[in-house]
Structure formats: C-alpha cells, structure tokens
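Here is one chain, start to finish.
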Amino acid sequence: MGESFDIQNLISFGDDLISLLNSKNGFDVVSQSFDHSEALHFACDEDFNQIQESIKDCKKKTEEAYSDESARDDEIERLQRDLDEDMELERKINDELR
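Its structure:
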C-alpha cells in the first residue's frame, strides 16, 4: 500500500513538472527557483563559515583566558614566594638587631 502511494505521488509530481515545463513561463519559473536555491545555498554556506570562524575565535579566546589565568596563578605563586623570602629576611634582621 505504501509503495503504490509513493508511486502515485511520484507520478503526480512528474505530471505537475511536465505541465509546468510545457507552460509559457514554466522553464523561467524552474530556472528562477534553481537560481534562488543556489543563492540560498551560498548564503547558508557563508553563514556556516562565519559561525565556524566565530567558534574558532571563541575557542581561542577561551584557551587564552585559561592560559592567562594559569600565568596569573604562576605569577601570584612567584610573588608569594618572594614575599615569604622577604618576610623571612626581615625576621632574621629583626632577630639580629635584638
């Protein structure tokens, strides 16, 4: 039953297409539809490429942010070590002065 229904739809579609092509403006309509389809496909490709580029930019910025964060963490640790060393030196100097 499903196959005969699909065949009926296909035959109906074929008949409609033949009628369209036989009409005075039929070929122009099909040609315009094809042109519009190509333009739409091109626009979709452009949008897709822009979105892909945006995703790459976001990934890069995210990686840079994580990198900067770890660099800041490293800098904080270095500064903390320097502070600890300076405080230890100050404590030793204070001990010597007493």
